[in-house]
Amino acid sequence: MIGCKDDDLVVGMCMHMELVPMPAPTPTPLPHPFLATVGDPSRAAAQAVGQPMKAASSDDDLAKRPVTINGALATSVGTITKNSTALPHVPLPPGTGWAPMPKPPKPMVGILETPPPPDLPVCPAGDALMDAGSSAVNFGEGAIVRLGDTCASCSEPARQVSTVIAVPVGPPVLVRG
Ligand SMILES: [Zn+2]
Q1: Where are the domains of the chain?
Q2: How many angstroms is it from 152 CA to the middle of ligand 1?
Q3: Ligand 1 centroid, distance to 161 Cα (angstroms)
Q4: How far apart are CA 70 and CA 51, in angstroms?
Q5: CB under 5 Å of ion ligand 1: residues
Q6: 9 CA distance to ligand 1 centroid (A)?
Q7: pTM of the predicted model, to two decimals?
Q8: Cα separations (Å) of 37 from 34, 57, 61?
Q9: Which pLDDT tens digit goes with each residue over 97-111?
Q10: Dihedral through CA 54, CA 58, CA 59, CA 64, nearest 10?
Q11: Ligand 1 centre from 18 Cα, in Å?
Q12: pLDDT tens across 69-83, in order?
């Protein structure tokens, strides 16, 4: 299956709680499309800074070198992808604003070794945790995510399944297993 990389797509559908006036504002679940481009800016920045230092030092670890597909960073299980890069959630009619909802903590999977800070209850988290990938193939530090793999977008009260759409922008990199 085609390997996933930065700027590929995650598509799905979330339910989010909005305040609907009827006549008193009432928290109501409404469907919202989820669309994000893959990429974790903090991870990319850390690698841009850390990689030249690692390469220059003697303890360079091959497994920790960034691996690219068609020139973009390959996507490992545990990547958090934000929808602010594609289609941020906004309140949709008949809702007039977000209804605060507590968010469950993200599980630690793949390269997500420390729990990220809890998502604020005031609005949707606007992200997807890429929690599924190859069971047999690692690219660098983590299991590689592939076209058609599922991930967990920010739906409320529990995260929902979204789907990874990996599109080759050069010779396709196929992952077996
Ligand atoms: Zn969402």
Answers
A1: 9-53+65-165
A2: 9
A3: 11
A4: 19
A5: 14, 124, 154
A6: 15
A7: 0.88
A8: 10, 33, 29
A9: 999 999 988 999 999
A10: 40
A11: 12
A12: 999 999 999 999 999
